[in-house]
Design brief:
Layout (H helix, E strand, L loop, with lengths): L16 H67 L2 H10 L16
Protein name: Cell division protein FtsL
Organism: Geomonas propionica
Keywords: Cell cycle, Cell division, Cell membrane, Membrane, Transmembrane, Transmembrane helix
């Protein structure tokens, strides 16, 4: 068998285990902090977008109700105008209540 010559002069010294753990721990804490911060920012962003959408829906609903109320108001004004019509009031007075215009003898002038 041939003898192998092994050179041990370039073998690296064993690393100190404490230094590697400390570097890993610092980077883990840093990454954890960054992840927590990103998570909080993301949650805030999503919450604010949901609130904006909800407010837009509420504004749209309020506008629809406002238009409905305006239309109802116009309808009621037309109804009031038709109920106040003198011809209608006179027809009701003569028909349902049996009233008639007064004669000259029934009119008394007050001075």
């Amino acid at each position: 068998m041939a003898q192998s010559k092994v050179a041990y002069g370039k073998v690296a010294a064993p690393a100190r285990p404490g230094a590697v753990v400390r570097e890993n721990w610092i980077s883990f804490r840093y990454l954890t902090g960054v992840m927590v911060l990103l998570t909080l920012v993301s949650i805030f962003h999503v919450w604010s977008r949901v609130e904006v959408i909800d407010l837009n829906l509420r504004i749209g609903e309020s506008n629809r109700q406002f238009r409905d109320q305006q239309q109802e108001n116009k309808r009621l004004k037309v109804e009031v105008a038709s109920l106040k019509a003198p011809a209608r009031i006179e027809a009701l007075a003569k028909g349902e209540l049996g009233m008639a215009l007064p004669t000259d003898q029934q009119v008394v002038l007050v001075k």
